[in-house]
Specification:
alpha/beta
Length: 227
Amino acid sequence: MPKTIVITGVSKGLGRAMLEGFIQAGHIVWGCARSEPAIAELQSEYRHPHQFDVVDVSDVAQVDAWATQQCRNAVPDLMINNAALINQPAPLWEVPASEFSQLIEVNIVGTVNVIRAFLPAMLSAEKGLVINFSSGWGRSTSPEVASYCASKWAIEGLTQALSQELPSGMGAIALNPGIINTDMLKICFGESASAYSSVQQWQKQAVPFILGLTPRDNGASLTVPGG
């Protein structure tokens, strides 16, 4: 039976790869991103019942309006919080306050905004999984990405606590996608990012893995195999 899947950050990278994989597998995707041209392209390529909207996840009013519109006729089976930013590599004291604040607003506050907006409908239906994208840097650390590490460690703790609040039959999972050659990785690794798996290779592992998650995985901190 087709699942209805909410994905944030679908304009490129892992978000775009997931939506393509889920749609190819016969599922329905509701996606958002901040890029108007990217969303217009997706709206043109994928018609109803798929839906793509321009939404800044750090803006609670935009997220609430998006969720209200989408949940009128259906309830998500999967909520995937993928949207995230990474800081330009630098010692923490050299990261501009504005850059740090924007990262926290998207990576942490944005995740909570989406949970707050969509989860009540899922609770009413007594079904669904919340999958919050974490990182290897949500379970370890490296220099010059302290801002990003802080946000992803927060996602791990937030997800663990949320998992203890959900009723039986639902679940919250922190998912580390692995190290993939994306624009974000290039910011940190430069040309050496090309040594890692492509987004297309990752998609082949990630999509079936995510579709195989169940409420039994509630509270788990998992990693996409081969990621």
